[in-house]
Design a protein that fits this description.
globular; 224 residues
C-alpha cells in the first residue's frame, strides 16, 4: 500500500498497479523457487499422511478411514468459525479499503501521505498476528479460542472508540486504526490457519479451511 501511494504521487495512478504487480511477481517467483510445501522436505511427517506404496489391506484401511464420518460437532464448529471470520473480513477490508480516503477527505492529506499513514493498520496488524500465535502457543493445549475471544473484545472496544472519537484528529485516527488492526488480524490469522488445522486430520483441515475462508470471503463483498 505504501509503495502504491508513493508511485501514485510520483508516476500516476497506472503505476500504482504496475509497480505493485511487479513486486508481487518477484515475490511469487521467489516463492515458487524456494518454498517448501511439504513437511517431508524438511525431514518431518504428518501422522495421517497416506503412504505412496502400501499393501492392499493397509490401503483398504486408509480408504475406510478417509470415508469415515466427520467428528461430532465438526460442521457446526467450522461454520461458527466461518461466521466469525466473516465479521473480521468485513471489518478488515472496510478499514483497509477506505482508511486512505477518510484520511484524505477528513483531514486534508494528499493521497500519497494518506496512503503512508493508513499502513498503520497493516504494520501493527502484523504484530497482532505474531502476538496471537505466541499467546495461543503458550496456553495449555495450545488453545486458540481464549485468544480469539479476548482479542475480539479488544477489537470491539477499539472499533467503538473509532466510531466515537476517531475523526477528532488524524493522530487519534491512525492510533485507533493500528489498534483495530492489531486486535483484528490476530484472530483473523488463527481462524483461517491454525484453527482450521486443529479441527481434525489433514483432509478435514483442508475442508475446514475452505469453509472458513469461503464464508469469510463474503464479508469483503458485502462490505463494498
Amino acid at each position: 500500500k505504501a509503495l502504491a501511494g508513493f508511485l501514485l504521487g510520483w508516476l500516476g495512478m497506472a503505476w500504482s498497479f504496475f509497480g505493485s504487480s511487479i513486486v508481487l511477481f518477484v515475490i511469487t517467483a521467489l516463492f515458487v523457487l524456494w518454498a517448501r510445501e511439504r513437511p517431508q522436505s524438511v525431514g518431518l511427517s504428518l501422522e495421517d499422511d497416506a503412504e505412496p506404496d502400501v499393501p492392499p489391506a493397509e490401503a483398504h484401511g486408509k480408504a475406510a478411514a478417509r470415508s469415515a464420518p466427520l467428528p461430532p460437532g465438526f460442521v457446526s464448529s467450522i461454520v461458527a468459525m466461518g461466521l466469525i471470520y466473516f465479521g473480521f473480513k468485513f471489518l478488515r477490508y472496510a478499514l483497509d479499503s477506505w482508511s486512505t480516503l477518510i484520511l484524505g477527505e477528513q483531514f486534508g492529506m494528499s493521497t500519497t501521505i494518506a496512503a503512508y499513514w493508513s499502513t498503520a493498520f497493516d504494520w501493527i496488524g502484523f504484530l497482532g498476528v505474531i502476538a496471537a500465535g505466541i499467546w495461543s502457543d503458550r496456553l495449555p493445549g495450545a488453545r486458540r479460542t481464549p485468544v480469539i475471544f479476548w482479542m475480539t473484545v479488544g477489537c470491539f472496544a477499539s472499533t467503538t472508540l473509532m466510531w466515537l472519537v476517531g475523526l477528532s484528529s488524524p493522530i487519534l485516527f491512525v492510533l485507533l486504526l493500528g489498534l483495530i488492526g492489531f486486535t483484528a488480524m490476530g484472530p483473523d490469522s488463527l481462524l483461517s490457519g491454525a484453527c482450521a488445522m486443529d479441527v481434525g486430520s489433514r483432509r478435514q483441515a483442508a475442508l475446514a479451511a475452505g469453509v472458513i475462508n469461503g464464508l469469510g470471503a463474503i464479508g469483503p463483498i458485502l462490505q463494498e
